[in-house]
Specification:
- By secondary structure, this protein is of the alpha/beta class.
- 26% of the residues lie in helices and 18% in strands.
- Helix 6 packs parallel to helix 8 and helix 7 crosses helix 8.
- It starts with 7 loop residues before the first strand and ends in an 11-residue tail after the last strand.
């Protein structure tokens, strides 16, 4: 049998996993032994960002290598057709790769493959058969084949909320387990053994609903988990009843947030074990494929505020929302393991994977390959990260060296943080005009013409370590 001449590539993504929700990234409470070991065996990119921290724009960036300014979507919006000049799975397929998606794609229209040979599609653990945008769910179809007719969201836990409930069915029916099972099916039985493969294993969790299996939830409810982080710029607020369970702004009930953290960590721990199963089945004793070169890339499409600064969900430029885990590792491949502190973003995934596969790019992208870091150069990255997200809390953010600048368009308020001294963004330095001025200038330079027209220097309002009226009017 002819063996593939190019390396296999396994891209694993989670949804809504913040950078510090990995043990190797400094979290002493969460248990992620598989991901920690994989990251330690490759290059862990400690400063990976998404430039629009919500699902659809980030996934456009993944497919195209383009910044939101280039691909045109700067906020969450379903139902938009999109025809990029080329896509990551498309160029890999053209080079002879068998390309497979298992899990979440979140593109429109449903069923469009965007260059994949095949997609096993499950955008959510919910079932929305009458939805214009999410009517197909192969996971729910599989549940029905197993004789399970109950609606998978009958637990009542919101798909964007902070409430928690143990998964009501046997663990083997959980969406995380199903995704791992489908990935193993492809890797061990369904793939073409004479072709290299690109498999995108795309988990929907730890995105809410927070419905981990009972044993995982018990593990974290029994731990003394830390409270959310509250910056100096956040005032004491009274928790008031009636705040919707999916509200973006708190303050939130401390006990509910404690359970939310437990549910969030439990889902990530469960995913870690599911990934362990996938890797072990690929490398199981006695098979010939264990000698094949395989790159494994892990990251997430955005983070989760998880109650930090009385905020929840994503879309914001804060570290908890825009800073994501990112590492490259592998088996039978040449990697000089270590840690990179260079700035990288999701724009970099397409050119990186293309270079690992030995493919020339068919057109321009906004990303930079991370491959030099795999061979010893851990300093090459972007000069800065520029991002944004429209919507209720329309904001723009900029990371330059160790400074983080955030501007809220609707209120014209600004915040500034020194991430080297203040990685949790607790002390707002926007009162420092000397630090603020160059970040304002750089922000204006990075904006496209449309956004720059609304960025008027005379109208800007430094928060000066006080609560932004954007959230707390």
């Amino acid at each position: 049998m002819k063996k593939p001449t190019r390396p296999h590539i396994l891209l694993i993504t989670t949804d809504q996993q913040r950078h510090d929700a990995l043990g190797i990234n400094g979290n002493p409470y969460i248990e992620t032994p598989t991901l920690d070991a994989l990251a330690a065996g490759g290059v862990n990119f400690k400063r990976g960002y998404v430039t629009c921290p919500v699902c659809i724009p980030a996934r456009r960036t993944l497919l195209s290598g383009l910044h939101p300014n280039s691909h045109g979507l700067k906020h969450y919006q379903d139902g938009l057709d999109w025809d990029p000049d080329f896509t990551l799975p498309g160029i890999l397929g053209d080079a002879g790769y068998q390309t497979q998606l298992v899990g979440k794609l979140h593109m429109h229209p449903m069923g469009k493959r965007y260059g994949f040979d095949n997609i096993i599609l499950s955008e959510t653990s919910n079932s929305r058969p009458t939805s214009e945008f999410q009517h197909r769910n192969d996971y729910v179809r599989w549940l029905k084949e197993q004789g399970i007719d109950d609606h998978p969201a009958s637990h009542g836990i919101s798909g964007n909320g902070r409430l928690v409930h143990p998964y009501p069915l046997e663990e083997r029916y959980h969406q995380n387990n199903w995704l791992a099972r489908e990935a193993v099916q492809f890797l061990t039985e369904d793939r073409d053994p004479e072709s290299p493969f690109f498999l995108h294993l795309s988990f929907f969790h730890p995105h809410p609903p927070f419905i981990p299996p009972q044993s995982y939830l018990d593990r974290y409810t029994q731990k003394e988990l830390p409270a959310p982080t509250y910056g100096e710029w956040i005032k004491d607020h009274e928790v008031k009843p009636g705040n919707p369970q999916d509200a973006i702004t708190g303050p939130f009930d401390p006990e509910i947030m404690k359970r939310a953290t437990a549910g969030y960590y439990a889902l990530i721990n469960h995913i870690d074990d599911c990934i362990s199963h996938v890797i072990e089945r690929w490398r199981e004793y006695g098979n010939d494929r264990i000698k094949d070169p395989l790159y494994v890339i892990f990251t997430s499409d955005h983070g989760e505020m998880l109650g930090d600064h009385h905020l929840f969900r994503k879309s914001l430029g804060y570290e908890a929302s825009s800073h994501v885990p990112m590492f490259i590792t592998g088996f039978n491949v040449n990697i000089e393991k270590g840690t990179s502190e260079a700035l990288h973003s999701w724009e970099d995934l397409l050119p990186t994977i293309a270079e690992l596969a030995g493919i020339d790019l068919p057109g321009p992208v906004d990303g930079k390959s991370m491959v030099p870091a795999l061979h010893g150069d851990k300093t090459t990255g972007h000069d800065c990260i520029y991002g944004m997200c429209g919507g209720a809390n329309h904001n723009y953010f900029l990371v330059k060296d160790q400074l983080k600048y955030i501007w809220f368009k609707k209120s014209n308020e600004e915040q500034l943080f020194d991430l080297s001294k203040d990685p949790k963004e607790c002390s707002d330095l926007s009162a420092n005009a000397d630090l603020l001025a160059p970040m304002r200038k750089l922000m204006s330079e990075k904006m496209d013409d449309e956004d720059r027209a609304g960025y008027v220097l005379e109208n800007l309002i430094p928060c000066c370590n006080q609560p932004p009226k954007q959230f707390f009017p």
